[in-house]
Write a structure and sequence with these properties.
Helices cover 38% and strands 12% of the residues. It has helices at 11-23, 42-54, 71-80, 88-95, 126-133; strands at 2-5, 28-31, 37-39, 97-99, 123-125. The strands form two sheets. It has a three-stranded parallel beta sheet with strand order 1-2-4.
Length: 138
């Protein structure tokens, strides 16, 4: 099992490595999901996710896409977008992914060197994003 620590890592770079490992048949446990970094202007990131949460299917609103507010579920949903989920390999790969808020068992996780930020002008953590979307911890 591959244990990945998301603290201070850039989401896209880290998630691509995780998706590759999942498709390779490895089980992945992602800890500290709320401390992952999204790069870009805060206003743009917030507007993007608020727009995604407001999409509705007029014919049948129950068939609308679901974007969660909880950090662990949001990160899992974002990684799902990197997997071929309509194929059996993608569905099985997603089942091998576990995402956890915090580090409850004090596990030592791998940090990908390529996913660590060099110099960032504007960024936002997943925790800041979900708190702006309405998630309350506790």
């Amino acid at each position: 099992m591959l244990v990945v620590d998301g603290k201070g890592q850039v989401f896209g770079r880290m998630a691509s490595k995780i998706a590759k490992a999942l498709l390779g048949g490895e089980e992945v446990l992602l800890i500290n999901a709320e401390k992952i970094i999204l790069v870009g202007p805060k206003e743009y990131i917030l507007e993007k996710f608020k727009t995604r949460r407001s999409w509705k299917n007029k014919a049948n609103p129950e068939h609308s896409p679901h974007w969660p507010r909880r950090p662990d579920l949001l990160v899992k949903r974002m990684i799902r977008g990197m997997l071929p989920r309509k194929k059996a390999t993608g569905r099985l790969a997603l089942k091998r992914l576990k995402v956890i808020i915090g580090n409850p068992d004090n596990l030592e996780g791998v940090q990908f060197e390529e996913a660590k930020p060099k110099r960032l002008k504007s960024y936002m953590t997943i925790e800041e994003l979900v708190s702006n979307l309405g998630w309350r911890n506790g």
